Amino acid sequence: MIVMDQIAAMQALMRQYRREGKTIGFVPTMGYLHEGHTSLIDRARAENDIVVLSVFVNPLQFGPNEDFARYPRDFERDRRIAEQHGVDVLFHPEADEMYPEPLTVRAIVQARADVLCGRSRPGHFDGVATVLIKLFNIVMPDRAYFGMKDAQQVAVVDGLIRDLNFPIELVPVPTVREADGLAKSSRNVYLSPQERSEAPALYAALQAAASAVERGERSAAAIRRLLREHIEAHTHAEIDYVEVCSYPDLTPLETLAGTVLIAVAARFASARLIDNIIVELPKTGEQGDGKGEQPCFARS
Amino acid sequence: MIVMDQIAAMQALMRQYRREGKTIGFVPTMGYLHEGHTSLIDRARAENDIVVLSVFVNPLQFGPNEDFARYPRDFERDRRIAEQHGVDVLFHPEADEMYPEPLTVRAIVQARADVLCGRSRPGHFDGVATVLIKLFNIVMPDRAYFGMKDAQQVAVVDGLIRDLNFPIELVPVPTVREADGLAKSSRNVYLSPQERSEAPALYAALQAAASAVERGERSAAAIRRLLREHIEAHTHAEIDYVEVCSYPDLTPLETLAGTVLIAVAARFASARLIDNIIVELPKTGEQGDGKGEQPCFARS
């Protein structure tokens, strides 16, 4: 495994791979790797000649009161895990290498960003989009792998790649969970034992919502109420949002139809957790044929 | 010469060239080609295996009261000129192909854009940066060619390429002029015979400024006054700006030092014209050695 921290050397290496006709799969991360990340790496490993992992805690996507400074970091452990999972190139730049001077040009996300996590993290997705443009230009991948746990991020990246014509295929990968259903997250290490025992209630609430949809519930208000009541009954967390919206456009819905994202975010004392599911329903106005009426759970 | 109007087909072709190890030179234009453009094409032809010319009048970079609808267009003539100058691929997309839906993500230029032309054209460089990100991702060039007549545009593109890590070399090309000094521009066709006879005064004013600098003038205020008086004495145009700033940072200067852009813009009844020169001077605080005191006119 090659470890690099310089942009110019990285671009020279990636050009070389491309000249050799090799396909490149890219997994951008902020490190502190868990099974969610390794599922992305494994998928990239199966589909490409070269697998590139980036580990970079991007200051641009953290708000002034967020956890940039204390975001968990353990590069030696990340390096070991990357090597074990067959990563070819590990890109681990310092912030000064990525942002040597104030940016003269940056990206702003003007759709899909003002709902869900974007509402409580203003500027977050602008920072994500800007660093991804940089990383895409540095790594020049054929495919980029993102976890569906951050469904809104996947929707923003989908827009970024399509609208700015990056010659990259976006590969969304299902959320990896603990045995009790808690979505894997680097921020789970912040949880106290009590919080850790309550945290699976987020996914349990989403499963309860899915069951309600299966039973025929189509009211977004009813689904939101169900989510809120479940989380309030089973945790001490403060609910940040419970939302029901179209995917990937992220338009809030009153009636569930088409591809629907059901998403929650809750603040425990020491960590804010997010989770979501996607349900596939007939589009509004489509006539059910008797077979198509069962929702199909395409991604979770 | 291959003429293309579809993005996906264009990207497939460009990938093919890259796989074959060919170098790609790119000349982005809004068409209505003149000798300024053909100087870019000729330079790209001399330096690359493949030359790509784009002709696209980008609606995103025109303000609501600007000349998007009446911007001069003559695609058959452009096609003929491109062929004569050895262009390999002419990319000529419709606006619907470039912007099929509202953009979810776009670029904003947060430095180098609030002076010179940016002051009277709010949002102009955001539109330029956004379309260039798209075109760079579609054409995937090794080198991109821009005319120094739009010096501010070159400065913005310099920031865009560097800050967002596009693996592209920016090649600035000197302004091409009519025999009487008027900078070549697609907008020159708007000029009445009277305006056309007055228009060379812009470059004459810049030359007078250069002579003053050669004689030792270092006051930006004095240079601006000289420019303004010359243009007012020789034209009926309304001065939009006369500015003296560092290049490529575009910081307004009080005292000329280092690489200095001297730029003018003036509105005739039917066209707004711009022109500029760059002078190279010792940096502030540098001691002259007797030889280095003559300004060197690197680009015009």
Automatic annotation (TrEMBL), chains A, B:
It comes from the Bacteria. CDD domains: PanC. It catalyses: (R)-pantoate + beta-alanine + ATP = (R)-pantothenate + AMP + diphosphate + H(+). Pathway: Cofactor biosynthesis; (R)-pantothenate biosynthesis; (R)-pantothenate from (R)-pantoate and beta-alanine: step 1/1. Beta-alanine binds at Q61. (R)-pantoate binds at Q61, Q153. The keyword Lipid biosynthesis does not apply. Keywords: ATP-binding, Cytoplasm, Ligase, Nucleotide-binding, Pantothenate biosynthesis. Its EC number is 6.3.2.1. GO terms for molecular function: ligase activity. It is an enzyme of class 6 (ligase). ATP binds at residues 30-37, 147-150, 176, 184-187. The reaction proceeds by a bi uni uni bi ping pong mechanism. Catalyzes the condensation of pantoate with beta-alanine in an ATP-dependent reaction via a pantoyl-adenylate intermediate. This is Pantothenate synthetase. It comes from Geobacillus proteiniphilus. The lineage of its organism: Bacteria, Bacillati, Bacillota, Bacilli, Bacillales.
